Fold:
Amino acid sequence: MKAIELKTPVYLVDEKKIEENLKTLHDIEDTTGCHILLAQKAFSMYRLYPLISSYISGATASGLFEARLAHEEMQGENHVFSPAFTEDEMKELVNICDHISFNSLRQLELHRNIWESSGVSVGIRINPEFSTQDGHEIYDPCAPGSRLGVRKADMPEHLPSGVEGIHFHTLCEQGAEPLSETVASVERNFGTYLHEAGWINLGGGHHITKPGYNISLLKDIIRHLKETYDLKVYLEPGEAIALDAGYMYTKVLDIVDNTLPVLILDASAACHMPDVLEMPYRPPLRGAGLPGEKSVTCRLASRTCLAGDVIGDYSFDIMPEIGDTLIFEDMAIYSMVKNNTFNGMPLPDIALLHPTGECEIVKSFGYHDFKTRLS
Ligand SMILES: Cc1ncc(COP(=O)(O)O)c(C=O)c1O
Structure:
């Protein structure tokens, strides 16, 4: 089946692009000895887990369900971090994970009787209180009042007994330079613990597969940590694994006029690409330009009731028509893991674009999926 024959809306994941990203990540593992984990929160297309685990070390989870998914579908290491675990979750996690990072000393102690004899390697998340991002407070774990990680002032003199790892996550779509500054700050403020620990997890937010990313600086940082502190180094990017590796095909269902032509699509920002509204960001649209750049500018919007369910304004060489297919790009990450059926909107199917150019529908959704999430 060709892409254009797929029923819309559909997420189409590009296997070749995923593999290209994975090769870049594999090279970093290979040349530095670090371990890279897929952060499933960004991309959990488990059909591709065998491919992913053939290039990188494993996966990390944000809680029990993602940890179970990796345990069932992914070969390799299985890490988990959550701001809080329940006792029941902890009992299950110690059987399926090899690394668990706690967000507070209280959680660490609360569950000590479960993890201590389990053989799982335990870490503590620190808050370096070192912000490197502007204007994105929602994505900044170092923002004032953050619940994420233990601050220097709250750390004990030495790592608590049994703690082997230090975890931090502070970046969002950033380069190796802010990582380098963050690591320097962690060394200044948490250096004692780096000497005591056996591993460090540098979290996610590393835009490693984006053109222009300074990979050699990243490798230097990893080598520095390994050599200075004798640490095993983990990175857990999500975006970098599936960056620019997926499309959303959508059809124009109607066109209304209000100051400019408004295209009503079968895709929705609110339901199918929530980060467009939450982050917010403007997804690239194949063949289209910025407003005013090409001859006709249209607003791309959805058929939900939400007035603000607008993807953005885009310009075209030729006015799109009802029935046309539009293709949003960079739609593999934080899309299918976050979608919902608000207004009873159908969930997009999930399809795979094989390197041969053939498309395979991996999963179709329908009314049943909408109904079974309700009661
Ligand atoms: C603890 C942690 N690890 C990894 C990630 C993955 O980040 P990204 O997809 O930006 O690489 C996140 C994202 O929020 C995170 O909170």
